[in-house]
Amino acid sequence: ETGVTQSPTHLIKTRGQQVTLRCSSQSGHNTVSWYQQALGQGPQFIFQYYREEENGRGNFPPRFSGLQFPNYSSELNVNALELDDSALYLCASSLKREGQGEQFFGPGTRLTVL
Amino acid sequence: GENVEQHPSTLSVQEGDSAVIKCTYSDSASNYFPWYKQELGKRPQLIIDIRSNVGEKKDQRIAVTLNKTAKHFSLHITETQPEDSAVYFCAASKGSNYQLIWGAGTKLIIKP
């Protein structure tokens, strides 16, 4: 198992609500990436944070936002939840330096929007 | 932006036989290509990766090949075992940003 943890493990919300998901990165890592994985599909890149700054964003609307804290843990916030936001949300931590690429994934948060 | 296509979506092989999964990518600047294994209800786990300065990499029963000209890369699993049953994802990224673009996945079924 990796040292990446996520909370909560499961969450049920209703349409229009807001949600915050949390990720603690592996010790020594400075980069956190967030992915959305719908059932039966591959993960989709949401955004990445490096040293508390957003460092790239996928094709997701502004109601998906995030933060990275000085200890490199991170939050994903989703406003105005829609039914299609139901998915497994994965965070992955990595150490940004040349020649390194491996991302270590957390167990994910399963979000259900009713 | 980058697009990664993966085939087949499902692959069923007899235990002991080889399995091959193929991916193509669209962005010629992509330079890092990992393969992940995801068992039901679990997190993706890296099984092997390759960089664009290498054409082939092997780790025991698993190998990956990369053809930069054709922009495709493949995962080869030899002597398949029941524990190889899972969903396998290919991905690609460029530069040092490690923002992975993923394929849709291949469900590998190992028949006893």
Question: Explain this structure to me?
Answer:
The complex is a heterodimer of chains A (114) and B (112). Chain A is 0% helix and 50% strand. Chain A has strands at 5-7, 10-13, 19-24, 31-37, 44-50, 53-57, 64-68, 74-78, 87-94, 104-105, 109-113. In chain A, the strands form 2 sheets. In chain A, strands 2, 4, 5, 6, 9, 10 and 11 form a 7-stranded mixed beta sheet that branches. The relative contact order of chain A is 0.34. Chain B has strands at 4-7, 10-14, 19-25, 30-38, 45-51, 56-59, 62-67, 72-77, 86-94, 101-102, 106-111. In chain B, strands 2, 4, 5, 9, 10 and 11 form a 6-stranded mixed beta sheet that branches. In chain B, a hairpin with a 4-residue loop joins strand 7 (62-67) and strand 8. The chains are: A mainly beta (114), B mainly beta (112).
Question: Summary?
Answer:
With 114 residues, chain A is mostly beta strands. Chain A contains no helices and 11 strands.
Question: Secondary-structure blueprint of this entry?
Answer:
The complex is a heterodimer of chains A (114) and B (112).
Chain A lengths: L4 E3 L2 E4 L5 E6 L6 E7 L6 E7 L2 E5 L6 E5 L5 E5 L8 E8 L9 E2 L3 E5 L1
Parallel strand pairs in A: 2-11
Antiparallel strand pairs in A: 1-3, 3-8, 4-5, 4-9, 5-6, 7-8, 9-10, 9-11
Chain B lengths: L3 E4 L2 E5 L4 E7 L4 E9 L6 E7 L4 E4 L2 E6 L4 E6 L8 E9 L6 E2 L3 E6 L1
Parallel strand pairs in B: 2-11
Antiparallel strand pairs in B: 1-3, 3-8, 4-5, 4-9, 6-7, 7-8, 9-10, 9-11
H and E order of chain A:
EEEEEEEEEEE
Biggest sheet architecture of chain B: 6 strands, mixed
**What's the number of extended β-strand segments of chain A?**
11
Measured by DSSP, the beta-strand proportion of chain B falls in over 45%
Q: What's the total helix number of chain A?
A: 0
How much helicity do the residues of chain B have?
under 10%
Structural class of chain B: mainly beta
Quote the average pLDDT of chain B: 93
